[in-house]
Amino acid sequence: MSESLLFGMVLTAIAVGYVLGRWDRKKRQQRVKDRLSKEYFIGLNYLLNEQTDEAIDIFIKALEINPDSHEAFETCIALGRLFCRRGEVQRAIQIHQSLLARPSLNRRQSLQVQLELARDYLSAGVLDRAESLFLEVTKSGHDLKFTALQALVEIYQQEKEWEEAINIADQLVSYDSPRYIPLLAHFCCEQAEHCISKQDYSAARQAIKRAMKYDKCCARAYLILGRLEFEQENYKEAIKILQQIFHQDPDFVSESVPLLIECDRKAKTLFGINGYLSKCLKEYPSISVVLALAQSIREKEGDKAAGKFIAEQLVQRPSLRGLNALIDLHIANTEGKAKKNLGLLRELTGRLVDNKPIYRCHHCGFAGKELHWLCPSCHQWGKVKPIRGIEGQ
Question: For 218, which of 78, 225, 254, 357 is 20 to 30 Å away at the CA?
Answer without folding.
Answer: 357
